[in-house]
Design brief:
alpha+beta; binds pyridoxal-5'-phosphate; nine-stranded mixed sheet; 8 helices
């Protein structure tokens, strides 16, 4: 089965898709996106992802092209056409093609694109062992709640993390841990789960919301507040949440071993929540 592409309501093989070089997404990063995955062939949390797409579009005054029901139909059609056992859907909406000028064009039509590729799950060994992370200055813009295609700081951070032998970069702004380059960050300290509050400094992760619910169901006290880098390094456990990482233990930060007794191993709360998440999607 081919990878599926989609441009403005038309499905076609991915390699045949094109957009204008004058597209504002390309020239200004003037656009937004979503990433949705399937479990058992069904899009996971589709409504939550589309609701966030709508919030992001509204925040940058971008018309949505279609109502959410039509978007949902296109996503489901794309998944069906791909025929993959599991798919990863990328949606992007930009302010369209127009002669280059910062001001919104009077007449450009938004460009809506979608790709559907096979979802290859993360190496299960990483989920079992946990991963290393490094902290990094959060020099992103002030509206990280908007899922904007402007990902240069995230790209730079993830590359630096890779060069340091780590999986994820954890952003720190004004001394506070905000989130990862591709994930939200949770710590466990003295039996409490703590994560940054929703607001302009983080993306309101769909997986984050699910983990907050799962933690509450497990009777784990939850705090939504920022932690300092020092608190992060002294955490009993740290884990990441996200569509692609699911629930992923962090066992080393800036070279310091995290985990029960500084073991550098995933902790019991993370393992419990990881299992609860797998039950939910399995
Ligand atoms: N934070 C950032 C910066 C992200 O890019 C992502 C996912 O792409 C997340 C958090 C996690 O969000 P979600 O759980 O909706 O995938």
């Amino acid at each position: 089965m081919p990878d599926i592409g989609f441009v403005n309501g038309r499905f076609l093989p991915l390699e045949e898709t094109t957009v204008s070089v004058e597209d504002r997404g390309f020239q200004f990063g003037d656009g937004i996106y979503e990433v949705i995955r399937t479990y058992h062939g069904q899009p996971f949390q589709l409504d939550a992802h589309l609701a966030r797409l709508e919030r992001s579009a509204r925040a940058i005054e971008l018309p949505l092209s279609w109502n959410l029901q039509q978007w949902a139909t296109y996503v489901c059609d794309g998944i069906k056409q791909s025929g993959y056992p599991e798919s990863k859907v990328y949606l992007q909406l930009t302010r369209g093609a127009a002669p280059r000028d910062h001001v919104f064009p009077a007449s450009a039509k938004p460009t809506a694109v979608m790709t559907v590729r096979e979802m290859k799950p993360m190496d299960s060994a990483l989920h079992a062992s946990g991963v290393a992370a490094v902290t990094m200055d959060d020099w992103r813009w002030g509206r990280c709640d908007i899922k904007s295609v402007n990902l240069l700081p995230n790209v730079m951070a993830r590359q630096k993390a890779k060069q340091a032998g780590a999986f994820e970069a954890l952003f720190i702004r004004n001394g506070q841990v905000t989130e990862g380059a591709v994930s939200n960050v949770m710590i466990v300290k003295s039996g409490r789960m703590i994560t940054a509050p929703e607001g302009e400094q983080i993306l309101a992760g769909v997986t984050r919301t699910i983990l907050l619910e799962l933690a509450r169901k497990e009777g784990l006290p939850v705090e939504e507040r920022f932690v300092t880098r020092d608190e992060l390094l002294r955490a009993d456990e740290i884990f990441l949440t996200g569509t692609t990482v699911e629930v992923l233990s962090v066992i080393r930060v800036d070279g310091k071993a995290i985990g029960p007794g500084g073991s550098g191993k995933p902790g019991p709360v993370t393992l419990k929540l990881q299992a609860a998440f797998q039950r939910l999607v399995g």
